[in-house]
Specification:
Structural class: mainly beta
Distance between the termini: 67 Å
Low-confidence stretches: 1-18
Shape: globular
Length: 745
């Protein structure tokens, strides 16, 4: 019996050692490390070697198909990773790309994952493709994918690569103070390294440590140890000055009138970042330029009764902003539209995180949520604050408090306060909640034009007071094959989030989801998914609003192609006091990477849908198609095009209620990893507008940037005779430039 117990203990201990490795690094000097795409003998001499032995996809911790070695050392101020990725250089996929533009599923890439606090709160992922094009990402411990991944995160690090006879070499130089970490000269960080590549049309992912598919906490499985002694913390103070200029003009009346340009407008501003410690900092900016240099891709909103939201692309809303992510947009950074001043304090302590954000916004978006539609407009000056403190209990469990408020110069305010938490039980069970209360007083202003009423109150802004609540509760169980969740969302009629994006109110949602996933390592079958979701929705008068279900089935097959089918069926829906019953639609999606140069995405829907924006809403026949195609020419040129078509026609006479499309064409040339030229054109048939945007951009790191470009909008008349039509004749024109440079002090 003693022998059996001893054997069990040995097996358990050996399994623990198998799953977790320690790399006690030897320090090098700065002169030993030269980033040139070659792993020199000086760089190898003091390095520990990590190997990527475990295949996670399509295999399940099976031996990897291609060998990879990583040489790791460090100096007082940075960590060095020299990756030798073996393989046939003719099979290497990728291109020279702008930052964060590499395609994970269709390029050879290396990813470094760091958890400096070792508490599974977040992973900081720094990556690059085989051509040295960088990506960075922050991954949180959360239940759903939308809350997990933060692609807006940026870190400063260096990469250099070279293609060699037996694969490629990729070097990383990661400043230690580019990541938050606990105070102290001696550090033990959790980390691991992964590689993705394609062989014979099959996508592979391998890693330095095993991955347990039955554990839904992906960030909890980054457990290899990176041990560094006597590092030198150098306090970081950074200045970020900028200068920008733009000029715009338009034709006044006639087609042949010249464009009349206004005066050249110039702006200057400056930002300051000061690190109190490796894990706390303050950032302030005066007259910041929060404009985006790349236009948002237009969404079809012709049949939407609610405001649309767009992703955040502005660099200021980066560091620490994952702390202000909520289950349903209680904070939405794009409501801070045009600030004259903004500041942000972030502290990531051991087992806790805190953020305090303040801003003076000169143009304040105002959103009024509704039961069946929302209302919005732009207001004047407001003063914005947001605060959140989060405390970790253990790996997989945390709780926090938060508050946001907005005070309008014209009078009125919006206050929000709440608590939230995430708790993990027995690895596979997770419980998440968020409760908040809002207290609002409208300004007296003409920002929203409407004579409609709700709750015996007016939509127009006339100084009325509101208070409301929002509750979110989710219970989920995730294993390797099964995924089940129960979700409740209740948003009372008086709820408003003046620093958030909550367009739908007066509803109590219940959602039940059950899905099955299975992985295969077959030639024609890689993954199979099937799921069923049911929703029921009442308003706060307990009147039924919607009852529906969705059925999804998808497979991944050869050529990295994913094929999916979805059927959406509405048993009941009440919209503007009209009852609609028993209507549905089918959708099919196909997405793939058939070659190293070509990728495509197709989605089509057909069925019945409500015409939401008709004076009297009614059911119509819907047809919609989205198709995009991207092609790479050599290592530097990328062409992409897309068309998004949608039509809804009457059931009685087949006449179109709406019918149109948005087409987009993009050309980009990447001179190197920092300098690019991009040309984008977009035609919107719904409003007959044509947009053209040339942009030359130099972006050597996330904060330093120079760009010059413009946006040209065509005249709104595409019904001219062919000989008179000139698609390059514009009626609105804008040119702009900006130079922003990061200065370390």
């Amino acid at each position: 019996m003693k022998e059996i117990i001893f054997l069990i203990l040995i097996l358990l201990f050996s399994n623990f050692c198998f799953a977790q490795k320690e790399f006690n690094l030897t320090k090098s000097t700065d002169n030993d490390i030269i980033l040139d795409g070659i792993i020199s003998e000086d760089e190898k001499r003091n390095s520990k070697i990590a190997t990527l032995d475990y295949e996670q996809e399509p295999g399940d911790n099976t031996p990897t198909k291609l060998k990879s070695e990583v040489y790791i050392t460090y100096t007082d101020t940075f960590i060095y990773f020299g990756v030798k990725a073996y393989g046939n250089p003719e099979n290497i996929r990728g291109q020279v790309k702008p930052r964060d533009q590499a395609e994970y599923e269709n390029e050879d890439m290396i990813f470094l994952r760091f958890d400096p606090f070792g508490d599974s709160r977040s992973n900081y992922i720094l990556g690059s493709n085989a051509f040295g094009s960088q990506v960075d990402l922050r991954v949180k411990n959360a239940i759903n994918e939308a809350d997990t991944y933060d692609s807006a995160y940026n870190a400063v690090f260096e990469t250099m690569s070279s293609i060699v006879d037996d694969g490629y070499i990729l070097e990383f130089k990661v400043p230690i103070n580019s990541l938050p970490y606990p105070p102290g000269k001696n550090q033990i960080w959790n980390f691991n390294i992964s590689r993705v590549f394609t062989l014979d049309g099959t996508f592979y992912r391998s890693q330095t440590q095993p991955y347990d598919r039955s554990d839904p906490c992906w960030v909890c499985q980054v457990t290899d140890k990176l041990i560094m002694k006597d590092i030198v913390y150098s306090g970081k103070t950074e200045l970020l000055p900028y200068i920008s200029s733009n000029i715009s003009g338009q034709r006044q009346t006639g087609y042949n009138d010249p464009i009349e340009y206004g005066k050249v407008k110039g702006e200057v501003g400056i930002g300051l970042n000061y690190d109190f410690s490796p894990s706390s900092s303050i950032e302030a900016t005066i007259n910041p330029d929060f404009s985006q240099i790349e236009a948002d891709e237009t969404q079809i909103d012709v049949n939407s009764s609610f405001a649309l939201d767009y992703p955040e692309l502005r660099p200021f809303f980066n560091k620490g902003m994952d702390l202000l992510k909520f289950m349903d947009r209680g904070f939405y950074s794009r409501t801070i539209n045009s600030p004259s001043f903004a500041s942000k304090f972030v502290n990531l302590g051991k087992n806790s995180g805190t953020i305090l954000l303040n801003a003076v916004d000169d143009v304040s978006p105002y959103l009024i949520g509704g039961e069946d539609k929302s209302y919005n407009g732009n207001g004047g000056v407001s003063y914005v604050n947001a605060f959140r403190h989060q405390r970790l209990i253990n790996k997989g469990s945390k709780y926090g408090i938060f508050t946001t408020n907005r005070f309008y110069k014209e009078g009125g305010y919006g206050n929000l306060i709440g608590i939230d938490g995430l708790f993990t039980f027995n690895t596979i069970w997770r419980f998440q909640f968020e409760f908040s209360k809002s207290y609002n007083k409208e300004p007296i202003a003409n920002w929203v034009e409407s004579e409609e009423t709700f709750l015996d109150k007016t939509v127009k802004l006339d100084g009325e007071k509101f208070k409301g609540s929002a509750s979110y509760i989710r219970l989920s169980r995730n294993t390797e094959h099964w995924n089940t969740s129960i979700f409740y969302k209740g948003i009372s009629p008086g709820f408003r989030a003046d620093v958030g994006f909550v367009p739908r109110i007066n509803r109590k949602y219940g959602t039940l989801y059950h899905g099955y996933t299975s992985f295969f390592d077959k030639k024609y079958l890689k993954e199979f998914n099937v799921s069923l979701k049911g929703d029921i929705n009442y308003n706060y008068d307990n009147k039924l609003k919607t009852k529906n279900f969705d059925f999804n089935i998808s497979v991944k097959t050869f050529g990295k192609t994913e094929i999916g089918y979805v059927y959406e069926y509405n048993l009941f829906r009440k919209y503007l006091n009209i009852d609609f019953r028993n209507y549905g639609k089918s959708g099919i999606g196909i997405r793939g990477f058939p070659t190293d140069n070509l990728s495509f995405d197709f989605e089509g829907k057909i069925g019945k849908e409500i015409a939401f924006n008709e004076e009297i809403p009614k059911i119509g026949k819907e047809k919609s198609i989205f198709f995009s195609l991207a092609y790479k020419l050599g290592n530097n040129i990328n062409l992409s095009s897309s068309i998004n078509y949608s039509r809804l026609e009457s059931l009685e006479n087949n006449k179109a209620i709406y019918d149109g499309y948005i087409s987009r064409l993009s050309f980009s040339y990447q001179f190197n990893n920092d300098l690019s030229l991009r040309l984008v054109s977009e035609y919107n048939k719904f409003n007959d507008t044509f947009l053209f945007q040339p942009l030359l951009k130099w972006n050597p790191n996330p904060s330093t940037i120079f760009y010059i470009g413009g946006i040209q909008n065509s005249i709104n008349n595409f019904d001219l005779e062919p000989e008179d039509l000139d698609p390059f004749r514009v009626n609105k024109s804008q040119f702009f430039l900006k130079f922003q440079y990061l200065i370390g002090i």
